[in-house]
Amino acid sequence: MQVQKVTPDAFADAVRNLMAEYGEEVGQSVKEDVKDIGKETVRLVHQNIDAAGIGGRKYRKSFKDTVTKDTAWITTVEIHSPKHYRLTHLLEFGHVVKVKGKVVGAARAYPHLATAETEAEELLGKKIAISVKG
Predict the structure, then answer these.
(1) Euclidean distance between CA atoms 105 and 65, whole angstroms
(2) Confidence class of residue 6 from pLDDT cuts 50, 70 and 90?
(3) What pLDDT digit, counting tens, does each position of 58-117 carry?
(4) Distance CA 40, CA 46 (A)
(5) CB-based contacts of 63: which residues, under 8 Å, 6+ apart?
(6) Is 3 part of any domain?
(7) Predicted confidence band of residue 127 (pLDDT cuts 50, 70, 90)
């Protein structure tokens, strides 16, 4: 960081400018952190699918990270399976099995998204803390 000499009258403006610079740098770092964690979360989902014993390479490969919102203040990344979104819900939460309108059993849940979400939240918190500290 560069040392600046300012007069007492210009001190408030100098501090304001430094804080704006810092905010911009941290904001960009956090946006990049969110995007990086999105990619990491897809990897975690892939691992969890394998660990849960869910077969099917097509299902595993279908998960993507998509930046759904990217403004000056907010960056949002969504992890989803555009081809198998109905199957995703059924596998994550389980479901009842009906035959001719009669409940004949239940399919168990294979949680694979919730654990990846929890891990991603923790990783993002750590990564942002590092970015803010500089």
Answers:
(1) 34
(2) confident
(3) 999 999 999 999 988 899 999 999 999 899 999 999 999 999 999 999 999 999 999 999
(4) 10
(5) 42, 45, 46, 79, 80, 81
(6) no
(7) very high
Is 19 domain-assigned?
Answer: yes
CA distances from 111 to 7, 61, 87 (A): 61, 17, 12
Q: In three state form, how does the secondary structure of 78-112 look? A: EEECCCCHHHHHHHHHCEEEEECCEEEEEECCCCC
In a domain, 2, yes or no: no
Total number of domains constituting the chain: 1
**pTM (predicted TM-score):** 0.80
Q: Is the pLDDT of residue 49 over 90?
A: yes
> Is residue 1's pLDDT more than 70?
no
Residue 22 lies in a domain: yes
Range of the domain at 47: 8-133
Q: Which residues of 33-61 are buried (b: 16+ CB within 10 A; e: fewer)?
A: bbeebbebbbebbeebbeeeeeeeeebbe
Given a contact cutoff of 8 angstroms between Cβ atoms, the answer to whether 47 and 53 are in contact is no
Closest CA to 108 of 99, 116, 96, 120: 96
